[in-house]
Write a structure and sequence with these properties.
With about 170 residues, the protein is an all-alpha fold. It has two domains: about 10-80, no CATH class; about 90-165, no CATH class. It has helices spanning about 10-15, 20-30, 40-60, 65-80, 90-100, 110-120, 125-130, 140-165. The protein is globular and about 60 Å long.
Length: about 170
């Protein structure tokens, strides 16, 4: 059976329905990993694992009190976002947002998001040079160097973009 392709996050959300964990993951992906936000199978598979984990957690602890539910949900959320902690999109988004802010040019969040998505393929070579899958990476000097290189490249790209006539 052919995998259904979705073209908008709204279509994915409608297909998911009222699945709490799937909708939570969809919201997270839309903000931090927009390239994965249309992958229905990924979302549903991971949400199912997280939901099962939460149910097992509650059963194991033999309680349905609010604290146990909160702990189960926190644990399930860790499963939902496992391996997704580092976000290229988020870094690019903040650099673009700062670029326009420093120029005194206010862009709406959705415009900045679009620009960040547009620029991301052109920045892959910079990300590829760094160990972004290392959990300690964001606290390292290498991370700072990467952000500095990204900032310079993004500023050059945005300056060229701003020079284009509309």
């Amino acid at each position: 059976m052919a995998k259904k392709k979705y073209t908008t996050v709204a279509e994915v959300a409608q297909a998911i329905g009222l699945n709490y964990y799937a909708l939570s993951l969809l919201e997270y992906l839309e903000q931090y990993h927009p390239d994965l936000a249309l992958d229905y199978d990924f979302i549903v598979q991971r949400a199912d694992i997280a939901a099962q984990h939460a149910a097992d957690y509650v059963k194991e602890h033999g309680s349905t009190d609010a604290l146990t539910q909160r702990e189960a949900n926190n644990s399930a959320y860790e499963i939902l976002t496992s391996g997704l902690e580092f976000s290229e999109h988020s870094i690019i988004f903040h650099i673009v947002d700062n670029y326009y802010y420093e120029k005194g040019d206010t862009h709406k969040s959705e415009e900045v998001r679009s620009i960040a998505i547009e620029l991301r393929p052109r920045l892959k070579s910079i990300f590829a040079k760094y160990p972004t899958d290392d959990p300690e990476f964001t606290a390292s000097c290498e991370y700072d160097r990467m952000v500095e290189k990204l900032t310079k490249k993004i500023e050059r790209l945005l300056q060229k973009r701003d020079e284009l006539p509309f």
